[in-house]
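Q: What residues go here?
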């Protein structure tokens, strides 16, 4: 009986287990079925209407001053408060007095352009670095005017044409900026593809065509290119006032300057009434995003989107079919398309798009037809957040399709990125951030930077307004959040969650206001401080990225589903997976023995442009095949296995020497044209490539280390001079530290080993050397080197510089380190990412040490970047040199830098080591001049066997002095002893020393060697 019960019990358990498994399998099957069914019904369209009209015209007074100048919002409110009339009319100002460099139709350089100008009644003026245009107004009424300019751009670079306009009021002695934005205004360019037929690389993938600027006379009213202000900029002018128009970067020809009328847009309701008898079209017109008629910036680019429903698609090969969001995200960036309409009728409008730039918040586009916005809804139409491509049907506030009247023929539709609805939020956040920064500095001044949480501070007594101010900031942020939330349609939009978080934190700090000094990390300084949270939100709201696959005009037609169903998707994915094993075009394993093989240590985007340049412009005897180098170490392994390429490009600047000393790379001095080519480089940049009497590599790119500084913060603490020497930095540090600020030097960013980029300036600037003349010993313990090391360490031990800084860029943005030394990477981030700091930062030369002997400040600093070399195993030595000299020539380096930026944007900055090519790169001229001047002091460490030990021991000496309070001379004596032992060991390995005795001379590279070789080659 017991046995039967046991069997029954076990059976029940098994049945239960089976049923559990069965239920589980059924559940999984059910959910898979639901997923499968839902995949056939993805979200295909977006018809949400977001009203932004009230936001576009909402202006609020703020205390914002940027570089001491008021904002246009404040100026516009001043106009209205003072009841200054707006003279909104079209009129010429030819009776006014013009003063500038006149260009006529007989001018040798610009005569033809002047002759092509249709307005023969107006003179033409040259606007460039040396020539401005002054206009003194006569016969005008006092009021606010909109100004329009005829212009012809003269430069081919990708930079926007920037001008400034200053006003001198009648009776004033100097010109002043009327508002901050007038200091940098953009006159638009127009770019198009060199060809509308996309070329393919040799592997079958489409390459974005090069861009060309369309040069012609244009007319433009001065407006906000950043996309924050609707309409044109207004300038208050009276009789005998003067304006000064200057170029900020490019050269321009200026024709007529006139007053222009701004026409208020009619409502969509009135527009519809005007066309209420028109029929609805039966056409379906689809234009691919790739078929751009024009774009305002060359960097607006396409990318491949592997979606089978796209107008252009291929399973295996890459088709450029979508406007890339990251390239079409800044205010003012405009793309245009030509539409061919076959019947005069009313049309509906839709866009297949994806917008993931702003989480749960919309971005906005100003939509114009034939260069005019037809009605108010199109002034800034919303494109809500979506993670997948959908059809954005354009609807009105009632959810009805918006109808557009088009006559038969060609039309141009343009979409301009704008952020009008976010203007008030951006300006209010900027105001709060500025006030937080000011309060923070004042409190730090009071506490001398103290932040001990156990110490009592009487903040309420010394800063009685601080508590109320914090509550006011919190209230303002809550109001902003509520206002912006209406644009989202989501209860808690992720993109603006920082506003509520900052509000709560401000209220928390205000409750215990006397603890503010110990809460600075939460208030203004830390990575998660209120200032950082607000700065991140402001920056995000200024970005309005959106991807576009097609533009659709339609009538009663049904729109195609923007997404493929799961079966099509799965089938395409399987095909791509199989094809991926056979289609890796830039793999290093793909090598034809008759080709010139070049391994490139750059991203694929760079290689594609390089390959296109080679196919188009290189006329060498052999076909050149580029392969992407996955890892520099693979080059070493390939050389050891006999499978090395002919040329290696983009390797670190220390690698050619390591190959040369092992006879694995070629001496480039043996080739014809070497001297001519290297005359384009700074002599100091060639130092790492010298071995004995040969040069075994060429610098390809070059870094720069310069001083970055925040103008606004330094002005607020009373600093009006940028320190040029280490003594001046020592004098500045107490002032900064009294506000709990600090100066940054590269030593602080490296944990553990302090490389030569951080330590070398202190050796060379003080007159020291790394080695003795014969190269057999280090010279680190010379009196000059000891003085340099003493300064290098005292900055931390006596002057309290921060020993470790995770990110200078972040500290610079947040304002805790308003000045410091950094390199190219920081420049790119500040120029392309830190939009909130626009106009607030500058660069200057690297600080140095004054030399009484030379009567100058020695600013020596490393500048090493990436390099190129020819492998010794190549069978095609001359062909390899022909290619390398072609690649590093001024023409090709300039062209590559231009194509890289106009294809992928300003962030893809090519800092060519060819100085003459660098001079042609698109960059602020003031900044370029600073960098070129700093490169005159480029000083790399000459390479010798055992150099790595000198670098390591110099770093160890710094650590001992700073952390262990060691004597500098003793620490350097220890470094010399260890380094010398390693140098002799390595010298013996390479045959220069036997039994501790030099048996062969070793030539230590110097600038004198390089200059002598160049003179010898010229002779």
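A:
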């Amino acid at each position: 009986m017991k046995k039967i019960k046991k069997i029954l019990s076990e059976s029940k358990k098994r049945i239960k287990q089976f049923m559990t498994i069965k239920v589980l399998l059924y559940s999984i099957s059910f959910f898979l079925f639901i997923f499968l069914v839902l995949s056939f019904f993805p979200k295909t369209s977006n018809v949400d209407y977001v009203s932004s009209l009230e936001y576009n015209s909402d202006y609020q007074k703020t205390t914002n001053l940027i570089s001491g100048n008021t904002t246009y919002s404040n100026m516009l409110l001043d106009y209205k408060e003072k009841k200054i009339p707006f003279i909104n009319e079209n009129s010429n100002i030819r009776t006014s007095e013009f003063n500038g460099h006149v260009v006529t139709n007989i001018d040798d350089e610009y005569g033809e352009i002047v002759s092509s100008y249709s307005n023969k009644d107006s003179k033409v003026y040259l606007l460039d670095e040396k020539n401005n245009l002054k206009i003194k107004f006569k016969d005008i009424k006092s009021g606010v005017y909109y100004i329009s300019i005829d212009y012809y751009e003269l430069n081919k670079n990708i930079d926007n044409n920037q001008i400034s306009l200053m006003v001198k009021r009648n009776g004033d002695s100097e010109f002043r900026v009327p508002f901050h934005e007038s200091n940098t205004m953009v006159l638009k360019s127009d770019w198009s593809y060199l060809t509308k037929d996309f070329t393919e690389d040799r592997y079958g993938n489409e390459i974005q065509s090069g861009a060309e600027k369309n040069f012609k006379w244009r007319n433009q009213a001065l407006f906000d290119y950043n996309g924050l202000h609707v309409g044109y900029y207004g300038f208050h002018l009276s009789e005998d006032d003067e304006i000064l128009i200057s170029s900020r970067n490019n050269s321009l020809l200026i024709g007529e300057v006139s007053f222009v009328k701004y026409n208020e847009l009619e409502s969509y309701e009135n527009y519809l009434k005007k066309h209420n008898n028109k029929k609805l079209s039966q056409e379906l017109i689809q234009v691919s995003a790739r078929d751009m008629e024009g774009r305002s910036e060359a960097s607006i680019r396409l990318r491949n989107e592997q979606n089978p429903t796209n107008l252009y698609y291929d399973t295996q090969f890459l088709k450029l079919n979508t406007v890339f969001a990251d390239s079409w995200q800044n205010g003012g960036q405009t793309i245009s398309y030509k539409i061919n309409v076959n019947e005069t009728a009313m049309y509906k409008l839709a866009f297949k798009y994806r917008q993931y730039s702003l989480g749960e918040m919309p971005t906005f586009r100003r939509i114009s037809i034939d260069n005019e916005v037809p009605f108010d809804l199109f002034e800034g139409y919303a494109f809500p957040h979506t993670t997948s491509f959908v059809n954005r049907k354009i609807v009105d506030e009632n959810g009805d399709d918006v109808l557009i009247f088009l006559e038969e023929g060609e039309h141009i539709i343009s979409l301009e990125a704008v952020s009008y609805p976010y203007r008030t939020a951006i300006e209010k956040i900027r105001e709060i951030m500025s006030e937080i920064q000011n309060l923070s500095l004042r409190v730090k001044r009071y506490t001398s930077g103290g932040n001990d949480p156990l110490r009592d501070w009487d903040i309420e007594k010394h800063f009685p307004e601080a508590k109320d101010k914090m509550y006011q900031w919190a209230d303002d942020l809550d109001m902003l959040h509520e206002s912006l939330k209406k644009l989202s349609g989501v209860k808690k939009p992720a993109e603006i969650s920082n506003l509520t978080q900052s509000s709560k934190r401000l209220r928390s700090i205000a409750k215990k206001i006397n603890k503010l000094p110990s809460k600075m990390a939460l208030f203004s300084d830390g990575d998660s401080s209120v200032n950082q949270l607000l700065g991140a939100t402001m920056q995000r709201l200024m970005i309005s990225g959106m991807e576009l696959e097609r533009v659709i005009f339609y009538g009663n037609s049904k729109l195609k589903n923007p997404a493929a169903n799961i079966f099509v998707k799965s089938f395409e994915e399987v095909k791509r997976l199989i094809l991926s094993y056979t289609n890796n075009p830039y793999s290093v394993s793909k090598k034809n023995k008759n080709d010139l093989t070049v391994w490139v240590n750059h991203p694929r985007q760079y290689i594609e442009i390089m390959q296109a340049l080679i196919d188009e412009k290189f006329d060498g005897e052999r076909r050149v095949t580029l392969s992407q180098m996955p890892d520099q170490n693979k080059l070493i392994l390939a050389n050891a296995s006999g499978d090395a390429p002919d040329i290696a490009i983009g390797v670190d600047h220390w690698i050619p020497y390591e190959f040369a000393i092992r006879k694995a790379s070629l001496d480039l001095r043996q080739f014809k044209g070497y001297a001519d080519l290297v005359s384009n480089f700074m002599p100091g940049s060639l130092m790492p490539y010298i071995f004995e009497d040969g040069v075994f590599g060429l610098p390809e790119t070059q870094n720069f280390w310069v001083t970055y500084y925040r103008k606004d913060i330094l002005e607020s603490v009373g600093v009006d001079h940028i320190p040029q020497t280490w003594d001046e930095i020592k004098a500045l540090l107490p002032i900064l530290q009294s506000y709990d600020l600090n100066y940054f030097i590269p030593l602080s960013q490296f944990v553990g080993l302090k490389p030569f980029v951080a330590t070398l300036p202190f050796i060379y600037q003080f007159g020291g050397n790394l080695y003795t003349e014969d190269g057999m010993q280090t010279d680190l313990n010379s009196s000059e080197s000891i003085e340099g090391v003493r300064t290098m360490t005292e900055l931390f031990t006596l002057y309290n510089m921060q020993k470790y800084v995770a990110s200078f860029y972040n500290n610079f943005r947040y304002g805790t380190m308003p000045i410091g030394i950094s390199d190219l990477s920081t420049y790119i981030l500040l120029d392309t990412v830190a939009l909130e700091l626009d106009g607030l930062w500058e660069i200057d030369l690297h600080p140095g040490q004054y030399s009484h002997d030379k009567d100058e400040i020695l600013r020596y600093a490393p500048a090493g970047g990436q390099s190129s070399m020819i492998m010794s195993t190549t069978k095609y030595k001359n062909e390899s040199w022909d290619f390398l000299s072609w690649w590093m020539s001024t023409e090709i380096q300039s062209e590559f830098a231009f194509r890289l930026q106009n294809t992928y944007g300003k962030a893809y900055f090519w800092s060519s080591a060819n100085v003459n090519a660098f001079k042609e790169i698109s960059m602020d001229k003031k900044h370029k001049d600073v960098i070129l001047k700093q490169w005159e002091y480029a000083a790399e460490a000459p390479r010798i066997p055992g150099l790595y030990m000198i670098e390591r021991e110099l770093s160890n000496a710094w650590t001992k002095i700073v952390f262990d309070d060691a004597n500098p001379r003793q620490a350097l004596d220890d470094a010399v002893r260890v380094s010398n032992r390693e140098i002799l060991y390595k010298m013996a390995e390479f045959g220069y020393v036997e039994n501790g005795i030099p048996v062969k001379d070793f030539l230590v590279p110097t600038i004198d060697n390089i200059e002598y070789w160049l003179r010898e080659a010229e002779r």
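A: Context that may help when evaluating the design: The chain has a mean pLDDT of 88. The radius of gyration is 33 Å.
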